[in-house]
Amino acid sequence: MSAPRQQTGVIHDIGYRNYDGARLGRWYLVRSLFAQSLRGAYGLGRPARSKVMPMLLFAAMTFPALIIVVVTVITGSDDLPLDYIEYIPITFYISAIFLAAQAPQLVSRDLRFRTVPLYFSRPITYADYVLAKYAAMTAALLILLGSPLLIMYGGGVLADLPFWAQTRGVLKGLAGAALFAVVLGGIGLAVASATPRRGFGVAAIIVLILVSYTVVSSVEAIALGTGNPTVALYAELFTPYNLVNSLQLWLFGVDINPQFSDLSAPHGWQGAIFAGTALAVVAASAGFLLLRYRKASTR
Fold first, then answer.
1. Beta bridge partners of 256
2. Distance from the first to the final alpha carbon of the chain
3. Is residue 40 domain-resident?
4. Distant-in-sequence, close-in-space partners of 54: CB < 8 Å, separation ≥ 6
5. How many other CB atoms are there within 10 angstroms of residue 218's CB atom?
6. The total number of structural domains that make up the chain
7. Exposed, middle or buried, 190 (CB in 10 Å: 0-12/13-18/19+)?
8. Would you tell me which of 57, 129, 170, 183 could form a disulfide with 153, CB atoms 3.0–4.6 Å apart?
9. Predicted confidence band at 2 (pLDDT cuts at 50, 70, 90)?
């Protein structure tokens, strides 16, 4: 009786090769996540329906600036009818809707579909993830808030308004836009990351901004009507837009709040309180995001 045949394995060469290209590392991943998130905030690289809302809001934000430029050119005015640092507070509802719509877009989908741990399967930490998302939301807001200011500046220069006065004005406006973007971006992402449901995140951001603004405006009106301007001033601390607006007025040496002729802007140590509050809001938002994604990274 012959011995049983001994089975042997066969190795097939199917053409796979080891990767021998450049390894771009952790910061390349962070930059890629930032770029992808920034594009997503405006619906770029996504279906057409995802572009409708951000593009309509961008158009709505810039349209008043175009009107201001046209009026200035036609009338031959010696100055723009609206100061650069006044533009964002007056059109705040547009940027508030953008924040409410797009902040959940940046973070809620990853939480809902539990794709966050996949990011951390690469050499990227939860702190890197938060940094990229926060930077992307801030940049998206800065584009939205800064574009109409640049349109006004371009129109002012073309209308032969004093060049250096317009340049100083737009630089102040862009600095204020950066403050708004950092504070609002942190608040929006922190609220949106609290729930994986995008609809809940949108509603929560709108309620937070609009309810706080309505309550503070009511308190201000009552305080000014009863001769308590200090109470009205400190009420500004409790709603994001008024907080940042008062801070920029203090930084740029404006004496009177343009939105309330009876309300003075912060002076001296009052401004330091507004600056400290803004820093605390940014730190609290970033801290909450770090804790939220540290927990999500372990699931």
1. 264
2. 60
3. yes
4. 41, 42, 43, 98, 101, 102
5. 11
6. 1
7. buried
8. 170
9. low
On whether the CB atoms of residues 126 and 291 are closer than 8 A, the answer is no
Structure token digits, residue 298:
């372990």
Give the span between the Cα atoms of 173 and 63, in whole angstroms. Answer: 17
Confidence of residue 152 (pLDDT cuts 50, 70, 90): very high
- Is residue 236 within 8 A of residue 216, CB to CB? The reply is yes
Task: Please calculate the CA angle 100-271-176 and round it to the nearest 5 degrees.
Answer: 45
The reply to whether 1 falls in a domain is no
In a domain, 2, yes or no: no
Distance CA 247, CA 99 (A): 20
Contact 99, 34 (CB under 8 A): no
Please name the residue that has the structure tokens 């630089």. Answer: 171
CA–CA gap between residue 51 and residue 89 (Å, rounded) = 25
Cα separation of 17 and 288, whole Å? 44
Two structure tokens written together for 284: 């609290």
**253 is a domain residue:** yes
User: Could you tell me if 86 and 170 are in contact, meaning their C-beta atoms sit under 8 angstroms apart?
Assistant: no
245-271 pLDDT, tens digit per residue, is 999 999 998 887 777 667 888 988 999
| Angle, alpha carbons 14-15-16 (nearest 5°) | 105
Helix (H) or strand (E) holding 100: helix 92-112
Distances (CA, A) of 210 to 23, 25, 145: 47, 42, 18
What stretches of 37-138 adopt beta strand conformation (E)? Answer: none
Q: Which domain holds residue 64?
A: 26-297
- Tell me the three state secondary structure of residue 91: coil
What tens digit of pLDDT does each residue of 220-252 get? 989 988 989 899 999 999 999 999 999 999 999
**Chain centroid, CA 93 distance in Å:** 14
| DSSP states of 150-191 | HHHHHHHHHTT--HHHHHHHHHHHHHHHHHHHHHHHHHHHHH
